[in-house]
Amino acid sequence: ARQNRAQPRHAELDRAHHPPLFNSLGRLRQMRLTDQRQPAELQDIYRKLHISHEGPAYLQPLVNGDERVGVLIVGSPYSQRQLTDEERNLLDRLGPLVTASLLNAEA
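-> structure tokens emitted (107 positions)
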């Protein structure tokens, strides 16, 4: 039987249109985007990912030493639920693991 699996989604985002994304990476700290504070950025991110709903999103910088590898975006467009402090701490701890996985995949 064929399983219906969600396909990984990725999008390229223009630095000029997404200052919070690059602020997160520049400051090396997690940031939360909400539709009250960053509606245009959220709309564009979800649109580029072909997601018709909007909700909070969390930007987790991915770094390897001094090298900025990228940003992991975790959102809840359907439930529109914000992450708890415990979930945000978990996301902080996942950042280095995701970075290592990406770097190992490139090797």
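The beta strands are 31-33, 57-64, 67-75.
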